[in-house]
Write a structure and sequence with these properties.
There is one protein chain. The chain has seven helices and twelve strands. It has 314 residues and is an alpha+beta fold. The chain folds into two domains: 123 residues, Roll (Ubiquitin-like (UB roll)), CATH 3.10.20; 139 residues, Alpha-Beta Plaits (2-Layer Sandwich). A hairpin with an 8-residue loop joins strand 10 and strand 11.
Length: 314
């Protein structure tokens, strides 16, 4: 007699999404149900390979009977639940969140979907003023008078953090950071367990930093680049991409993506080679790949330079 292994059997739950009755497995989130139905739902802090942190608040939906809007990325479905994703309340909330983000950081290098959502919800990126500089270690934010003062009672000046280029593999541009915490999760218990980066400071001074604000080469970082793989705004990017953007040569519209298998070891990680003008500019991995779940090691993500080191012509 042959034993057959079965997956976890889950009860089906019936709910209504924008007037359409659907059935999804128990334990699914509202976002899972929306994506299964093909409903366009904006997300920034959510990723399929990370635990939801409910930070960005752009995926909020209206649930009948709920006093407030709920985050679809984390709220579990319930039998008989009625969900509305396009009500006036939801549209206003998403518009306001995107406008606040645009006034806080530079969103110019975000995923194209973000720009599509900004157009869809009629976002005025200048409504709350130009993006303010991110708080740095030892500095106080004066964007909100009365909150922060120097020891002598005076108000300190906030100085924008420069782009941090302290290693050969990736750069950190915190002027684009929306504090989605995805990099922290990828560096921590969701993937790498390195804990090289975390949130520092409080309130308006909250920022992503290394332990004791040390330079990256002196931290616990192992340069896997998984933080780059989940960053939605370009706050973390490879040196190759950064240099191309700075030189005005970044050409994402003509980029091709080819899936292959990493040859550095026998684990069998899938790689997605992002190629522009016959040159590899980035390497990622599919989030649904059973081996990597979207995460790579330093060799898989950055060890492609030898492919392009062609011998000199005679």
């Amino acid at each position: 007699m042959t034993a057959v292994m079965l997956g976890t059997i889950r009860r089906m739950v019936t709910l209504t999404l924008d007037g359409v009755e659907v059935r999804v497995p128990e334990g699914s989130t509202i976002l899972d149900a929306l994506r299964a139905q093909g409903t366009d739902t904006p997300t920034l802090c959510w990723a399929p390979n990370l635990t939801p942190v409910n930070a960005c608040r752009v995926c909020m939906v209206e649930v009948t009977g709920s006093r407030v809007l709920v985050p679809s990325c984390a709220r579990a479905v319930e039998d008989g639940m009625e969900v509305h994703t396009d009500s006036e309340k939801v549209q206003h909330s998403r518009k306001m969140v995107l406008e606040l983000l645009a006034s806080s950081v530079d969103l110019s290098q975000t995923d194209p979907d973000v720009h599509r959502w900004m157009t869809k919800y009629g976002v005025d990126a200048t409504r709350y003023g130009p993006p303010a500089p991110p708080a740095a270690e030892g500095e106080r934010d004066t964007r909100h008078p009365g909150h922060h003062h120097a020891p002598d009672g005076s108000t300190a000046e906030t100085v924008a953090q420069p782009v941090k280029e302290d290693n050969d593999l990736y750069v950190r541009d915190y002027g684009r950071c929306i504090m989605c915490y995805k990099c922290v999760k990828a560096c921590g218990t969701d993937a790498q367990y390195t804990f090289a980066i975390s949130a520092a400071g409080r309130g308006f001074d909250t920022r992503i930093a290394t332990e004791y604000n040390t330079e990256l080469p002196d931290s616990a970082c192992v340069y896997c680049g998984n933080c780059i793989g989940v960053c939605p705004t370009g706050a973390l990017k490879s040196v190759a991409e950064h240099e191309l953007r700075e030189a005005g040569k970044w050409d994402e519209e003509n980029e091709t993506v080819t899936t292959t298998i990493c040859s550095f070891c026998g684990v069998g990680c899938n790689l997605e080679l992002h190629v522009q003008h016959n040159t590899i500019v980035n390497v990622t991995s599919p989030s649904d790949h059973s081996v990597t779940h979207g995460h790579l090691c330093i060799k898989g993500r950055f060890g492609f330079q030898h492919v392009q080191n062609l011998p000199p012509s005679e």
